Amino acid sequence: MTEPTHEPAPEPAAASAPSTAPPPRAAHGDEVDRIVAAWQRERPDLDVEPLAILSRVSRLARHLDLARRSAFARHHLEPWEFDVLSALRRAGAPYELSPGALLTQTLVTSGTMTNRIDRLESRGLVERHRSLDDRRGVIVRLTAAGVEGVDSAMADLLDVEAALLSDVGPDDRTRLAELLRLVVGQFEH
């Protein structure tokens, strides 16, 4: 029986100063690529392809949420406030909707919407009016302050979102929007 030979351990690499270079770009892979590769190595029996797409969507959603919150905060609005105000603004002059229409557009319960309308009304951003079509019904309308707040927040939001997409060319943006519409569509029908 032959004795195994033992090679001396290699010298440890010299410690280098921390890099101030930006993280590697997509050409060199990103964190999602590393996660996908690790799962492929650990579970070669699984098709991990969805991770390569949906993990990026999830990470993008987190970054977008932070960017939106920051843009809205500069206008003293919470994301839910912007949702309600922007639904009213998109309705066109005189910028009013029924609470039921607001429920449909913002996907919240009636109790939550009542609370939100109360809070926006107390801030002077919306006002309630009796419906001309239904004497028991109420219409929610943007005030001048509400229009000004949502318009300035929207302009700021679009600047932030354009910056997030600055590395994506116009044709790729169009294609990305089409592909995302395809995925999101299954939840909206």
Automatic annotation (TrEMBL):
Key word Transcription present: yes
UniProt-listed PROSITE patterns: HTH_MARR_1 (PS01117), HTH_MARR_2 (PS50995)
Region described as Disordered: 1-29
GO biological process terms on file: response to stress
Domain of life: Bacteria
Key words of the record: DNA-binding, Transcription, Transcription regulation
MF terms in GO: DNA binding; DNA-binding transcription factor activity
UniProt keyword Aminoacyl-tRNA synthetase present: no
InterPro entries recorded: HTH_MarR-typ (IPR000835), MarR/SlyA-like (IPR039422), Tscrpt_reg_MarR-type_CS (IPR023187), WH-like_DNA-bd_sf (IPR036388), WH_DNA-bd_sf (IPR036390)
Domain HTH marR-type: 50-185
Signal peptide: none
Pfam families recorded: MarR_2
Name of the featured protein: Transcriptional regulator, MarR family
Annotated organism of origin: Flavimobilis marinus
Lineage: Bacteria, Bacillati, Actinomycetota, Actinomycetes, Micrococcales
